[in-house]
């Protein structure tokens, strides 16, 4: 089975802390994505990566950065967490951008910033 | 901004009934996909329909696509309590998958 593994299911952090959310996929997928999900707003794309060391901003990149040093791993970094970053974070991967690719999601990481 | 908008936002039905949810989008698409999310979990892909297709079936799922109206519908037949979840449509352009806000389906046993 294709697997996308997010390292933490639940995190509680303090305002101003640096937060790392890790995502690993085991299917040699080219593309990886980070979304955040908030009630009434659906899924919003934060960043995506189509290759190692490559990254592109999504719709809401402010306050976030990403790192992709290896093909299987895509990390989301909150340099200085704020309460408005309390959310569910979803990592996903796909083989490529052919147009018929589907996304495989991790189980999600629920972050609470106090 | 979100491309897809699902309708209704929430739906409650009895087990055995059919559930229909709709999705509208704004721009041209390569394909449209439907995903399901159980409470507090990640999304799972259900079905993909290409822009040149009008209808597609998978088990108890039936998806239609009307590109002239920029809309799609997902029908779940003979619903079960286990179908209780949120359902999202997603459209894909060149590089991005854009999700709607979802329909929360509750199937009562």
Structural commentary:
- The complex is a heterodimer of chains A (114) and B (109).
- Chain A is mainly beta and 114 residues long.
- Helix content of chain A is 0%, strand content 52%.
- Chain A has strands at 4-6, 10-13, 19-25, 31-38, 42-49, 56-57, 65-70, 73-78, 87-94, 104-105, 109-113.
- Chain A starts with a strand and ends with a strand.
- Chain B has 109 residues and is mainly beta.
- In chain B, the strands form two sheets. In chain B, strands 2, 4, 5, 9, 10 and 11 form a six-stranded mixed sheet that branches.
- Chain B is globular and about 40 Å long.
- The model of chain B has no long low-confidence stretch (mean pLDDT 91).
- The A-B interface holds A 4, 33, 35, 40-45, 48, 50, 56, 58-59, 88, 90, 92, 94, 97, 99-108, 110 and B 1-2, 4, 30-31, 33, 35, 40-45, 48, 50, 88, 90, 92, 94-102.
Provide keyphrases for this structure.
heterodimer, A: 114 residues, mainly beta, seven-stranded mixed sheet, four-stranded antiparallel sheet, 11 strands, 0% helix, globular, B: 109 residues, five-stranded antiparallel sheet, 57% strand
Output the helix-strand order of chain A: EEEEEEEEEEE
- Binned, the helix content of chain A reads under 10%
* Major sheet of chain A: 7 strands, mixed
Coarse morphology of chain A: globular
Quote the average pLDDT of chain A.
93
Mean pLDDT score of chain B: 91
Give, in order, the helices and strands of chain B.
EEEEEEEEEEE
**Main sheet of chain B, how many strands, which sense, barrel?**
6 strands, mixed
Number of strand segments of chain A = 11
Radius of gyration of chain B: 13 Å
What is the straight-line distance between the termini of chain B?
Answer: 37 Å
Q: Counting H and I runs of at least 4 residues, what is the number of helices of chain B?
A: 0
Question: Measured on Cα atoms, how large is the radius of gyration of chain A?
Answer: 13 Å
| Euclidean distance between termini CA atoms of chain A | 36 Å
Oligomer class? heterodimer
The low-confidence runs of chain B, each spanning 5 or more residues with pLDDT under 50, are none
Give the largest chain-chain interface (CB within 8 Å).
Answer: A-B, 30 and 27 residues
Number of beta-strand segments of chain B: 11
Q: Determine the structural class of chain B based on helices, strands and strand pairing.
A: mainly beta
What structural class do you assign from the helix and strand content of chain A?
Answer: mainly beta
């Amino acid at each position: 089975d294709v697997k996308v593994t997010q390292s933490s299911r639940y995190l509680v952090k303090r305002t101003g802390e640096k937060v790392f959310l890790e995502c690993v996929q085991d299917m040699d997928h080219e593309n990886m994505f980070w979304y955040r999900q908030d009630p009434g707003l659906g899924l919003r794309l934060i960043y995506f990566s189509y290759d190692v060391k490559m990254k592109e901003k999504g719709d809401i990149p402010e306050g976030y950065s990403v790192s992709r040093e290896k093909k299987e791993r895509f990390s989301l970094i909150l340099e200085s967490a704020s309460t408005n970053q309390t959310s569910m974070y979803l990592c996903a991967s796909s083989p490529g951008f052919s147009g018929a690719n589907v996304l495989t999601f991790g189980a999600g990481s629920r972050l609470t910033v106090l | 901004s979100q491309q897809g908008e699902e309708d209704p936002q929430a739906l409650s039905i009895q087990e055995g009934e059919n559930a229909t949810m709709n999705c509208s989008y704004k721009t041209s698409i390569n394909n449209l996909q439907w995903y399901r999310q159980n409470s507090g979990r990640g999304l799972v892909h259900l079905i993909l329909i290409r822009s040149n297709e009008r209808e597609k079936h998978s088990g108890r799922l039936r998806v239609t696509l009307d590109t002239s109206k920029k809309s799609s519908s997902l029908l779940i037949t003979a619903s079960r309590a286990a179908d209780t979840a949120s359902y999202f449509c997603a459209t894909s352009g060149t590089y991005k998958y854009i999700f709607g806000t979802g329909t929360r389906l509750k199937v009562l046993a």
